[in-house]
Amino acid sequence: xxxxxxxxxxxxxxxxxxxxxxxxxxxxxxxxxxxxxxxxxxxxxxxxxxxxxxxxxxxxxxxxxxxxxxxxxxxxxxxxxxxxxxxxxxxxxxxxxxxxxxxxxxxxxxxxxxxxxxxxxxxxxxxxxxxxxxxxxxxxxxxxxxxxxxxxxxxxxxxxxxxxxxxxxxxxxxxxxxxxxxxxxxxxxxxxxxxxxxxxxxxxxxxxxxxxxxxxxxxxxxxxxxxxxxxxxxxxxxxxxxxxxxxxxxxxxxxxxxxxxxxxxxxxxxxxxxxxxxxxxxxxxxxx
Length: 288
Known about the structure:
This protein is of the alpha+beta class. It is built from 11 helices and 14 strands. The protein has helices spanning 14-24, 37-42, 78-83, 85-90, 92-97, 104-109, 112-118, 124-131, 149-152, 241-250, 263-287; strands spanning 7-9, 28-31, 50-53, 63-66, 69-73, 135-140, 143-148, 153-155, 158-159, 166-173, 178-186, 196-205, 208-217, 224-225. It has a 5-stranded antiparallel beta sheet. A 4-stranded antiparallel beta sheet has the order 11-12-13-14. A 3-stranded parallel beta sheet has the order 1-3-2, with helices on one face. A hairpin with a 2-residue loop joins strand 12 and strand 13. Helix 10 packs across helix 11 (263-287).
């Protein structure tokens, strides 16, 4: 099939882009990498009168250290993150999640901001952002604002972004000290969206857990944070991965069922993914 007719816009700077978004109202859609939007348009699952392609705006690209965080421009490609030694050193969880996104052809065009703003609940980058308490920087004609990742996602393909607002970049906190990170997911084929997945970040001081975060994806309408009650202050050796996995999914409600898997199956898989990711993160932190 072919997309419904639309008017194409290609601004070259942020001011021009936000002016267009303001003028065109709710009949406009931002085109970032296009790896999710273009197929949806082609299948006529969605349609817009105007597309604003932000791929020519240099201010939206880049990977750089920014104090105690890593800043990544919204139009930075996933392949750039995959190749970046800066990203791998500062935010290992982001780098480890990247190869799980689609196939390399998709990562060559797909962008960090496009994935996050698209807000697919089975996608890896939104889960990483929520797990690490990332901050999302946006701009509109009204000015700039920062939205915590845990408040950004409202539902499937739905976020806090206003119709006239553009995602500029994402600040991922850098965890210092003895840390471990892992991401595990189960997909029917490599490159498919995960049926269920988990992200784990942990920090140790001596043999004691001083900080930890567990994220879930594919198990609700948004990426989720699992409860970590009782883990901070505990010793990893005294905590069973299976128990953590079971606790992480125990309170889940509304786990999706579709032709690929039932909600019950996804929940069981999610528990296993948490347990595996926990074991890998603890092992890495233990190595210092």
